[in-house]
Amino acid sequence: MLMTHLAASRYRYYRWLLAGAVGAAILLVSLYTRYYQEVKSIELSQQTLATRTVGKLNQLLTPAQLQAERSMDMLDQPCENVSSTLRFRAAQNQALRAMLLVKNGIIYCSSLFGSRHYQLAAVMPTFVNSNARLALRPSLAVSKGLPTLVMWTPSPRDKTSGVLHVFNIELLSNFLLEPQEPYVQRVVLNVADSSLEYGRREILSRDTLTNDLRYTAGSALYPFSISLFGPQIGMLALSALPRHIPLALLISLLAAYVVYLLTA
């Protein structure tokens, strides 16, 4: 009888041990699954934000490019003849600060100030010395020092002639580059070696913005990219785990109870 009682007690102990091990395993698997899902969800949220921001900027630049292509015939006329048309076309885009005509490397007409005479190579050397089409630069006229995004559309017949669009990107960045906490703490627009960060009214060197970089999406249409900065994805996923613990614990307890009954 004593041996039978000891055997029964030992068997019951092993049943509890097996049930506990299965419950613990189920708990760990459940939490790891939730962790993996959180990581993928955060990555998807970041990618969606970056892709959506790139798409919005593409939608801003594409009409301006088409407008520039339609305006090439104005390059054969003096500024006095086309200034009213230039102002009208610039007013059609609310994000546009100015539209300028360039002939033989000379900026000769502005939608804001009329006749001008500036060397394109002196004002925007990146457009002359390379095949760049976009540039971030501080404003030199209205609201001096504030960031602007300049788009250059050269004439198909003469690369020293074309149309410049100057966008008030500092204003646009307030809604185009708005981060989404906690997944994204900072959103940055990159053009060549220059960057503009949400909430900052200055253009920074791209090399200075490397800490906490999580994701970068480039445009397939224009030479710019969007970079997202924030905490490590693993840490964000871990911080989200506590809300999944009650359900995971309930599942593990049910699994342990079922194993205990099945081994009776």
TrEMBL record:
Residues passing through the membrane, by range: 13-32, 244-263
Domain of life, source organism: Bacteria
Chain segments annotated as coiled-coil in the UniProt record: none
Keywords assigned by UniProt, alphabetized: Membrane, Transmembrane, Transmembrane helix
Domain Putative cyclic diguanylate phosphodiesterase CSS motif-containing: 47-228
A Pfam match: CSS-motif
Entry keyword annotation includes DNA damage: no
The protein, known as: Cyclic diguanylate phosphodiesterase
